[in-house]
Amino acid sequence: MPDEEPLFVGVPDSVALRKDLLNASKSLLSSLRGYEKFNAIKNEKERYTSELVRAVKEINMLNRRIKQLLPKTRLKPGMIKKPVPVPPRIAREMPRPAEMMEAKKPARPAPSGIIEEKTRLAKLEDELAEVEEKLAKLE
Amino acid sequence: MVVYVKLDEYKDIVDIVNLIRTKLKQARYLLDKVAELKKQEDAEIGGWASELDSIEEKIDTIDKTLTEPEV
Fold this sequence. Notes:
heterodimer; A: mainly alpha; about 70% helix; about 0% strand; B: mainly alpha; about 85% helix; rod-shaped
């Protein structure tokens, strides 16, 4: 067909459509601005959090220092449990500590990060157990 | 059971306790700040949600206008 007439689609209320488009753009820009604000807040929060962690570590260190300065209390002889003697026959059958350690070894070594995390956690747990034990003795 | 502490060490302990108090106040302040900032973050996320709703609404209207044209 020569010289084909182009077809048009009528858009009713084009002004309202343009207005909606502009408003949508405005909202998007506002969202982006909100993102920038959010980022700034997040950074500030991280800064405060790291300061908080440092303060808690310092408190922990000072606490340990107090513990060092306080004299070690001597335990009364009655408070120390004597090890129960093991009959020689049973002692011979019992595995040696080195053998037990060998048996407990994991098949595959864990990644170093996990080990560090575990040792830190284990240390904290030990400290907590120690404190709880001391508290129990005081009660 | 009474525990006797050397005088100079006692002074050190008292100083350290005071320092711990100061540090605890600082930690409390920092914790309050973190909580406040977390609230601000939550408010920002809430704002985003409502803005996205509004954008969705506008896009729906635009879509409706374009897909149901006057012929």
